[in-house]
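**User:** My hope is that you can spare some time for a protein that puzzles me. I have put the entry right below:
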Amino acid sequence: MPKFVEAGDRKRDIIEAAMVVLAEHGFEGLTLRKVGKALGGSTSLVTHYYSTKDELLDDLPGILAVRWQSEIDELLSAADDPADALRRLLLWLIPNTDEKVRAERGRIQFSAVSHRIPSAARVLDRFDHYVRGCFRGLLSDEVPADDMENVIDMLRAVATGIELETVEHKWSSERQEATLKRLVGLLLISV
């Protein structure tokens, strides 16, 4: 008897598999067949939920953003204090495991073509706004209000730079974390 899987769970699985395919084959190499294979089955595992690649790509950013926001909410709620929460958020933003490097490759591929997908840029912008709001809340006692956006820009720019360096040049997790720690020290934020 086939195993029952909730539609939401299956869609998340399909999105995860699509990100793996994007990471390995790029946008042009993303096919429903490859996504089905990445799921360990056939195309019908995907076409039951998404009849075309475009439908899948329309759904992808929203599902990813919900997952990412949930992960961040969970790690922030587990923090001991704002400094610990800031450290956790910064570490979440960098690809310091093999799985996160693979996911980052897929995100970069997706970002590169997001102009072709109407909902993608909006969702990615909303997620960036959410992350910036997290930073504002965590830094409110440490950073003067008139300098807040500059500090957040620097944190985002360095995290993004670390992501790219890691994907392109295989930075170790130790190097990533040391770079973040140094930046935070330069900004005189106590973490």
Remarks:
- Residues 64 and 182 are 30 Å apart (CA to CA).
